[in-house]
Amino acid sequence: MKREQGRLLFSPSDLVRFVQSPFASWMQRLCLEVPETKSLKDKPDPLLSYHAEKGLAHETRYLDSLEASAQNVVTIADALNNSDKIAATIEAMQSGADVIFQACLSADNFQGFADFLVKVDKPSDLGDFSYEPWDTKLAKKPKAYFVIQLCCYADLLKAAQGVLPDNIAIVLGTQEKVQYRTLDFLVYYQAKKTEFLEQQASFNSTQQPDPFAYKDVGDWSEYVEQLRQQQDHLSKIANI
Predict the structure, then answer these.
(1) Cβ-count burial of 206 within 10 angstroms (0-12 exposed, 13-18 middle, 19+ buried)?
(2) Which residues have C-beta within 8 Å of that of residue 89, sequence separation ≥ 6?
(3) What is each CA distance from 177 to 62, 134, 142, in whole angstroms?
(4) What distance in Å separates the CA atoms of residue 77 and residue 103, rounded to the nearest whole number?
């Protein structure tokens, strides 16, 4: 979540955060509007950093396997600014690359980076082919939020190629590829996206959602625990 040229710009991860916890989503927006509240965030967790490194290694291994299969793989350079990354992604799609790594997609007020766009035989504005989004995840089993994130990439892809991808896919840490029909989850995704945008449109820095209503509080667990202690909340009682 950020401001760019005077407008709010959201990522698929912002939407996932809202689905898991409207409170965490509200806190993220608060940090944008009131920068000093960033001090309320949890301290960096070395374990999370370790898992992030493992996730990048998994992503790199899968990229190596695609390149070894002699496919035409285009990597969007990390050194580019986001506008150039979007342009480079569109250029790679128009050229008919078999795989596009770290594709930058943007439409309306959403922008995100898909791990892989994979070429499929479905006609689109690009020609007799189109692309589907694949994401690498270190997990051994699929999780619900993986699908929400991929649906957002599919939505962004539709804006770029004129057709919605038939499928989305997750490459698990076991190297197993799990594929889903996009339409099976599209209505739920669209409903949550609408709710998220409504929350952002009506944001009020003085109207904090109930921090105790959600199991997942994102990067604000220490802050929520402080509130729990200050309010002597009922959740401190055993078995409640």
Answers:
(1) exposed
(2) 76, 100, 103, 104, 105, 117, 160
(3) 11, 9, 10
(4) 9
Query: What is the Cα–Cα distance from 62 to 157, expressed in whole angstroms?
Result: 22
Cβ count within 10 A of residue 122? 17
The token pair that represents 81 in the structure block: 């600014």
Instruction: State pLDDT tens for residues 35-85.
Output: 999 999 988 878 777 777 888 888 889 998 888 886 799 999 988 899 999
What DSSP string runs through 138-158?
S-SS--HHHHHHHHHHHHHHH
Answer yes or no: pTM beyond 0.85. yes
Nearest-angstrom CA–CA distance, 152 and 11: 9
CA 53 to chain centre: 17
Structure tokens at 178: 């799990």
Residues in the chain: 240
Pair type for strands 99-107 and 73-75: parallel
Q: How far apart are the first and last CA of the chain?
A: 34
pLDDT for res 68: 86
